[in-house]
Protein 1
Amino acid sequence: MSTVHLPRSASEALLADGTTVSIRPLGPQDHRAVLALHTDGMSEESRRMRFFGVSRNAPAQAADRLCGERPGVLAIGAWAGEELVGEADCELLEDPPETAELALAVADRWHHRGAATLLLEHLVHAARSHGVRFFEADVLFGNRAVLQVFADLGLPVERRFQQGEVRLRVPLDETDERYRTAVDERGRRADVASLAALLRPASVAVVGASRREGSVGRTVLGKVRRGGFTGALWAVNPHTGEIDGVPAYPSVAALPAVPDLAVIAVPAAVVPGVAEECGAAGVRALVVLTAGLGAEEARRLMAACRRHSMRLVGPNSLGLAQADPAVRLDAEFGGAFPRTGTAGVAVQSGGVGIALLQRLAWLGIGVSSFVSLGDKYDVSGNDLLQWWESDGRTDLALLHLESFGNPRAFARTARRVTRTIPVLTVDAGRSAAGRRGAASHTAAAATPTVTREALFRQAGITAVHSIDELVQTAALLHTQPLIAPRGAVAVVSNAGGIGILAADACAEAGLVLPELPQELAGLLPAGASVRNPVDTTASIGPVELTYFLRALEREPAIDAILVCLVPTALSTTRDGDPAHALLEGPARRRVPTAAVLLEQQVPVRLRDCAFGGELPVYSDAVAAARALGHARERARWLAEPPSAPADAPDCDRRTARSLVDGYLTAHPEGGWLDPLSTADLLTAYGLPLTTSVWARDEEAAVATAAGLRRLAHAGEVALKAYWPGQVHKSAAGAVRTGLATDDDVRAAYRDFTRRFGAELAGAVVQPMAAPGIELLAGVVQDRVFGPLVVLGLGGTAADVLADRVARLAPLSERDLTTMPAELRSAPLLAGVGGTPPVDLAAVRSVLARLSRLADDVPELVEADLNPVIVHPDGAVCVDARVRLEPRPSFDPYLRRLRRPAAAEGK
Ligand code: ADP
Ligand code: MG
């Protein structure tokens, strides 16, 4: 039995009540703690459940087994500060291990806080990465607590009853969606519980509030006080007893009670010490406003937060605000107290935050909570999404993110949250220059645009290009009913030319403009046109317009209305308001309506309607159309039921694993696989590689070719020279196709020898595939985002036309259909001019298998199948390249808190 290696480093995670615990493998130094857990930590009854009896030696034996370097034992412990809360262990029963025998114990005083489940999740992860596929455990019949833990885990548990015991068997299938969903739900609850101290604190201390007016600490203190915070407020300042009417104390320890939240505005060098002091006192959350922490300061700050179970916003944060009247906390130095409302706002950059709050204030959109994430050491966009999803107030999420800590976990959360509330984000770093800025701004690796776009679209996030576009889109989504996914819009204008421009803008935003029934013309002045765009003529008056719009609203062919008005003497009512007619609409509109008033000076306003509700009024038709387009994208997303993960049957994981491990043992730095190993790896996952036979010299090539001709299209073969490290074969003259005779093959091989000389290692012989459409399919692993699956037009045209679509793995069943459909070449695949359609099922199978392979083998950093030649009946890949690199196995969905790069400094 091989020795088991676990990652030595700890990871932190949240218990159900929001407490942070640290999880790490047990070692000899933990012997005393493990013994204490099984003796002092557990009652006689708990011990009986754990050890099936009351043997006095059992605790000592357990400590020996768990802490010794016992081969085949995986043992992890969860720690709260110095205290061992619980342990979970398993013993691998076979070599190679398929099944492991599981046991766990939690100290009595830590029961009912989700420690056992959390430990189990981490043990599942560790066991899986050792190839374990089943846990088995014996549990006493009366041990309800442990039986419940298994029942709630989310994995399908088999139970067998035998003489007072239950024998459990749990398959650890990694793609089990039910398990992932159960983990998500536990993660959401724990996260929200831990965030309560930040976002609904009962008491707040501002540390570093000076007497000096205009200092950050003093400003925030003043804002909290004047904002009408409903809880207790104190200042911490060693030099004075009172600041701005707020009582001040010399230290956190000296405060009359322990604050839930501490807002820290002290110099960078002092931040770690203050954080430690807060933690020791029992503070539950920190907002660090200070910027410019060095690596060592960052590390110590994080260590204090984790050790003392404090959530952290910042550093370099502008602060946060909670508008709920029961709390009314305005602890930020950005702008005006946001009006109480229903929009959740989280920004990475403080400046963007100020601009965004300002515009929302102008618009009159109220805020539920606002968080300036700053350098995002701990609390991130992912946390806020879960908070808003659960706070019962927020119905619109506005995010500005420059970097992603764990994008795959974020995507999973967002995919769920966007089902209930719209999530809008400004897509920052679209250009190379912008990414450079983002990388230096947040010290995070820049992410290519395609990858971010894939993330947003797969998660149902509405991504916009500017703060203005964000606000303009929010104005529509916030006030108007959901548009039908069809997206049929009626454009109405009192100036024909303006209507045409608006119609163009709508079409460009992906909306459709259906023909309208001719009867509607009867409601308009003579000379008007009800072809869509509707030209009412400039002679229409407000009353006629109101009447017409009401009729239009009832028209079933219409899903949205866009009215563009140019001020004319006739269109304006006595009060001089051209929008008057539009505001007469019904209180509950059937279809979303937006207006464009060309003389309006601000880009967007929300106007109160006569019978209730609000109407978004834009100064520009392009902005209005774009907002409608985003609304329609969201409607489509909602109309699609969540799709199942793509199915890829009969993938031989074991073969792939041993191939990859074998290669990386021989090449620890990684590199490109040779053609035959490439074929073996891809074939293990059912990818349709053509037959490739290796020939080391001319004679072997001729003989092999003779054998392969029978399989080949038109009896011809392809010959490809190979030498280690080659890149593009055709460009180097290393590919010969359509070789029909022995002489052809011989001549081609001789030519290779002449060209490549001693470098030539041999050649690959393949049967020629029948002509078809050449596609490329591939995978690239992003360090942070994980694998991205790409499909495009392949062959020699690939680079010039750049007709590609990309999605993050794991792909869903729907991705398999939408990816080929989104190519510009899609009509080609469907068959044009009498050519039959290609076998799309074969294309879908290639995508599903690549996605599964990329997910199972994180070491596969690049795979390029180009071309995959698709026919009416099947697909075959004649050229594939695979690059491997050593990568630790990483489960993005394992519950653990962030490890910010900035705080990893040693
Ligand atoms: P590279 O991409 O390195 O230049 P390929 O092996 O993809 O080399 O070959 C280049 C082109 O030759 C392919 O895009 C394809 O059009 C054609 N080709 C190569 N092998 C075959 C084959 N076995 N059957 C049919 N066509 C082939
Ligand atoms: Mg190729």
Note: The CA atoms of residues 228 and 744 lie 88 Å apart.
Protein 2
Amino acid sequence: MSNIDALIHDLVSANRILAHEGIVDGFGHVSLRHPDDPGRFFLARARAPQNVVPEDILEFTLDGQCTKAGAPMSYIERYIHCAVFEARPDVKSVIHNHSKSLIPFGVTGNKLRPIMHDCATIGCEVPVWDCRTNFGDTDLLVRNMAMGRDLVKTLGSGTTALMRGHGCVIAERSLKRAVHTAIYMEHNAELQRHAMQMGGDITFLSPGEVAARFKLMDDLDNKPLAALDRAWEYWCQRAGVEYRPPV
Ligand code: MN
């Protein structure tokens, strides 16, 4: 059996880190697949990530039902997490956010592409899902499995997708990788906008460079204070949460 308390500590930390780094605000959420039951995942009750504490973490099945009777209100858009976990056994953590710099790339036709080594895990080109294509005029929220599954078709086998006029989804192999990709996806959007303003052709990372960066992450994931965990310690310190080394 896994140490669920330790995982929930990390999930709460992820909520606080994403808030501190400006990736989420009153909205946005992060989930973690249950290590002992792939048909379940952990996600906070409907609360701003900055305020999430361990008692807020609930368990859901892949159809979006909370396993606890009489549970407090859940995020409406939990179906994003359900649909990704349903379609992608490789994914252990999902983030949905509306960070500001991403939005222009979902509405202008300018493709978000990796401009810097640490941003490579967004993939070679971030696809854009438009809910209007199949669902017409809505409030843009992913309110059911049909919308979630449609979004996941755009995500494909990748780590990221933009949602037109709304935000993005991140699907990663671990919680720390999801947080890393969410933070650097926002950085990439900001840097790419600066580069576009400077004019001229932008040299993006090549597919081979992107593949090499994914391999680096695979090699270093969850090793104490190696690259990703070093960043995790830094983010924990900034967000004022206790850093616990991987076990
Ligand atoms: Mn949203």
Note: The radius of gyration is 17 Å.
